[in-house]
């Protein structure tokens, strides 16, 4: 077999490994194994690429490749090791950004040194197909990069989490799309060699960078899980487009897998929030006006505030407790204390389970990861659709920092910005305990009427501190 045939076979093996990797990541029980398969697949893909170009490798080139892998891998390992679980969404956003930036830079490199990538045709210039594929890779990569950076800054609190509404933003985005299409067509049909029309690809990249900013800035915090999965999908499609440009089978297959899985996840997230994908792109829900009106309506309503001793008394006399974790638990790093509380209740004969909303936290699966870190048994964790009907049989719904996903306004207030969004119906339990620092609105900027219901007891404190006090009282 020739070198090309062997590399094609190895790339096929890599693609199969990546498919099994994503399959493993679909469940917390198999996620570790899925990660290991993915790591092995990526190592094999890198080794196959080196094998394919071994005849063109000299000492300097190999040293540059090895140095890049060592530096990038070292930085990534340090960041991943030091980053707390609460920063995982921001880290995922930045990883998406780096994936998009890599596609953009390789597309630019292929454009300015086409001979090195085998892209020169018989007439001495690149063909229209290569130019279109290159433009798509640069375009999608640039949007992914700038959009992911904005998303990460929003998640980190460096930018406002709510929608930042630009004047005439829809018209601005339409103009940018029209400009990108026009520039791509101009580049594809231009008979001038790349040295003469290089400004066109740079203009595409620059305009796409602006598009990433204008698309993500207006999206509110409640839609961030969708944005993260959407940008992850974009990074995959950018890699796939680059794979066509470079005739690299592994990039095409793996990029398509990542792009498709990210798109499917985005659809699942939108369905979980009763939102259309287009409405998410157009701008997030929740804003200052909605928040202000909600606060004014609830300013005079009575609030039942309890203590750790009150909560412990009710919990130990309950027969069924459903725990609903949210981002407040992540911020306080209260998952281990929560596990200790649940173990104490189970020892007393209380039936304890966990209810997870698909968009709880700042990214898909955020709560599942935190509970797994605290070694909560997988069979005690239920998705929203599987447990929502059980709240009617529960004595206590114990909400710890899950605000927007427990808001009854989504069910009974047509004027609410989140009306129609599927939520965890915690108010159907005998008593709803809600741990929160204050009565402020959630990340979506929408006030929660649950705070003022007769069967709700607000436990206003740091989540970890409150749970630890409840454990002591138990």
UniProtKB/TrEMBL annotation:
- Reactions that this protein is recorded to catalyse: NAD(+) + NADPH + H(+)(in) = NADH + NADP(+) + H(+)(out)
Membrane topology field: Multi-pass membrane protein
Question: What cellular component terms from Gene Ontology apply here?
Answer: plasma membrane
The record's listing under Gene3D superfamilies reads: TPP-binding domain
Give one GO term, molecular function aspect: NADP binding
Q: What is its main location?
A: membrane
**Superkingdom, natural source:** Bacteria
Locate the transmembrane regions by residue number: 6-25, 37-53, 59-80, 92-114, 134-153, 174-193, 199-219, 250-270
- Look up the EC number in the record and give it: 7.1.1.1
Family matches, as InterPro entries: DHS-like_NAD/FAD-binding_dom, NADH_DH_b, PNTB-like
Q: Where in the cell is it found?
A: Cell inner membrane
| Top-level EC class | translocase
Domain named NADP transhydrogenase beta-like: residues: 9-472
Q: Which UniProt keywords apply?
A: Cell inner membrane, Cell membrane, Membrane, NAD, NADP, Oxidoreductase, Translocase, Transmembrane, Transmembrane helix
Subunit info?
Answer: Complex of an alpha and a beta chain; in Rhodospirillum, the alpha chain seems to be made of two subunits.
- Which PANTHER family does this chain map to? NAD(P) TRANSHYDROGENASE SUBUNIT BETA
Q: What does this protein do?
A: The transhydrogenation between NADH and NADP is coupled to respiration and ATP hydrolysis and functions as a proton pump across the membrane.
Protein family membership: Belongs to the PNT beta subunit family.
Q: What is the designated name of this protein? A: NAD(P) transhydrogenase subunit beta
